[in-house]
Amino acid sequence: MGNTLFPKDQAHVVFTDMQGIQRKGFYKKDSNGYIEAIGKELPSDPEYVYPEDEITEWEYAEEKGTE
Question: Does the pTM exceed 0.70?
Answer without folding.
Answer: yes
